[in-house]
Amino acid sequence: MSGYLINFVVYTAAMVGLIFLALFVYKQTTQGFGMSSKSKFLNVEDSISLAPRKNLYIIRAGKERFLVASDVDRTSLISKLDDNATFKRQELKSSVDELPTIVDFPKNKETTVFQNIVKRI
Q: Is 68 within 8 Å of 59 (Cβ atoms)?
């Protein structure tokens, strides 16, 4: 009985090994005989998701950059980007900087708010 169990384990391990070997050979032949599938010429610099399955990409092809929109149905070129253009995010000013400054009034006319109201009446 133990002989059957040992034969089953050995043959099963051999078949699993053969399947992994076939998968390895298949991947090597589809990638161009050991060459890397990652391109050095094309590069996605940045991407943003606009909606589900809708994206904007900045793609560098050599020394040129392109803005590309991708959708479920199609991919379209929006524009060619200028290489010299640098995009900087504007820093938001704090609300403290936007408050008006306090002006010092001349002290020779010292009047209170109540006195100003009384003068107008």
A: yes
Altogether, the residues listed in the chain come to a count of: 121
DSSP-assigned letters across all residues of the chain: -HHHHHHHHHHHHHHHHHHHHHHHHHHHHHTTTT--SS-SSEEEEEEEEEETTEEEEEEEETTEEEEEEE-SS-EEEEEEEPTT----PPPPPPTTTTSPPPPPPPTTS---HHHHHHHH-
Q: For residue 43, what are its two tokens? A: 């590069």
Is there a single domain that holds both residue 66 and residue 45? yes
For 75-112, the pLDDT digits (tens) are 999 889 886 555 544 444 444 555 555 555 555 555 56
The model carries a pTM of 0.41
How many domains, in total, are found in the chain?
Answer: 2
In a domain, 47, yes or no: yes
CA 54 – CA 70 distance, rounded (Å): 6
